[in-house]
Amino acid sequence: NETRRAAHLSAEQKRRCNLKNGFDMLVVLVPSLTQNPKASKADMLRKTAEFCKKLKAERIQMQKEADILKQEMETLHNSISIIQSQLPETGAPVTRQRVDQMKEMFDDYVKNSTLQNWKFWVFSIIIGPLFDSYNNMVSTASVDDLCRTVLAWLDQHCSLQSLRPIVSKALVHISTATSILTDPKSVRNHAIENVTKKRQSINKHGRS
């Protein structure tokens, strides 16, 4: 009997301790109880229930707002897709003079960057086709034209599906036009010589 009595007292003490810890936790979690920690247990339970109802209502409201935002995003995405589908495949018309000027500036940039770090020449072979498509497609006639044509260019030329063949072609060109596979150290001289001769050739044709 003494053993059972001791076990019963221990269980009761543990139960009361758990209850006390539970109510102490409610005081910490429920704002209205934090301001009145000496409230009766009945009041504590009532205020906790009210707080839970409030949280549930807020959660429902937040879910509704999230659903509305999701619908707005889908509508906006569909509108963008429709607008992009209506854009011309070749982009906005650009003058031959502007294209040539931009190409010349690009070549100068490649030359100067390659002379500083020859590895940029390898990068220029990859971005060259992207620059050409950008140069032919993007219009700077107005801010609206710029935004519209840049988005169209990104959609048509900068997807992973579009970039893969460009990179593959660039790697094939580097492998066949240089001795990178047999003599990697010579690629530096090849890169510098390439941009230098290209600039000289452009200047020669320009003077003629």
UniProtKB/TrEMBL annotation:
GO MF, one annotated term: DNA-binding transcription factor activity, RNA polymerase II-specific
Entry annotated with the keyword Plastid: no
Principal subcellular localisation of the protein: nucleus
UniProt subcellular location: Nucleus
Gene Ontology cellular-component terms listed: nucleus
Gene3D superfamilies according to UniProt: Helix-loop-helix DNA-binding domain (4.10.280.10)
Coiled coil: 52-79
Recorded superkingdom: Eukaryota
Stored InterPro entries: bHLH_dom (IPR011598), HLH_DNA-bd_sf (IPR036638), Max-like/E-box_TFs (IPR052207)
Start and end residues of each BHLH domain: 3-55
PROSITE patterns: BHLH
Key words of the record: Coiled coil, DNA-binding, Nucleus, Transcription, Transcription regulation
Protein name: BHLH domain-containing protein
Species this chain originates from: Lottia gigantea (Giant owl limpet)
Phylogenetic lineage: Eukaryota, Metazoa, Spiralia, Lophotrochozoa, Mollusca
